[in-house]
Request: fold
Amino acid sequence: MLKIKSLTKSYKGFPVLKGLNMSLEKGDVYGFLGKNGCGKTTTMNIICNIIAKDEGEVNFAEANPKIGYLPETPALYGYMNAVEYLDFIGACCRYEGDIQARTAEVLEITGMKDGANRLIKGYSRGMNQRIGIAAALYAHPELIILDEPTSALDPAGRAEVMEVIRRLADGGATIILCTHILADVERVANKVGILNEGVMQVEGLIGDVKKQFDQNNVIRIALHEYPTDTVNALRAINLAERHDFSPAEGITIAAKAEVTEKELYNKVILTLADLNTVPEKIEFKRQSLEDIYIGITTGYIKTMQNG
Reply:
């Protein structure tokens, strides 16, 4: 649906985007991640044709697609109620159908039907965000872009907005979700892109990205107690490159690069059996999306883009 290639943008000689590549398919819910100031909002503004790119390509599968955009802080008219505001949005976007029917429909989708006749100035932050989403999806856009839709919301407001996004996702909407809340991305998104230092460091289906960075050769062993002979025996496993031990974390063994997960696991089991020791837990370390995001944006995890 959308393919971005080698996108660049500078402000007063300062490069923000340095050759960004990005790809969305129809029906994707794309978690767009990155630190403040890394170029996410610039990218979204270029996609929406609000600002001009310097170089690169922004190609849609269809010519002149409709895009719905919710900025981080939507500017609403407090003297209107939701029905008046959304009827106004329908007129502004020259909606060709029945405006009153569409207003009622988007109020239903966003869960704002009960508050439709209250003045916007009396809304909570969560209600404002839901009305902003209603405006963004009003004209049946091919792409919906949501910039920090749950920022500064309390848990109840965040849950309300995420439920709206989940319903849109379940309905097959194509969404770019820009947020710092990784749990929200894992809850609704199927694809993720991590922007750092002006380029897309990692992009792919969330499951594939996690699998890519899983440390399959790092095993953790939790025991009821840690006698010295047991700890020393596990540390002496000759398949290992590194061993760490703490009573809180247990024993962590990082295998040599050429050692498989199965080989390491079998060796640990045999060692414990020889010691007549039953473990509380044995698990391989799996990277969460948060682990990967922090690792990439701090430089701890290296990618093909950042060497």
About this structure: The chain has a mean pLDDT of 89. The first helix runs from residue 40 to 47. The chain is about 35% helix and 25% strand.
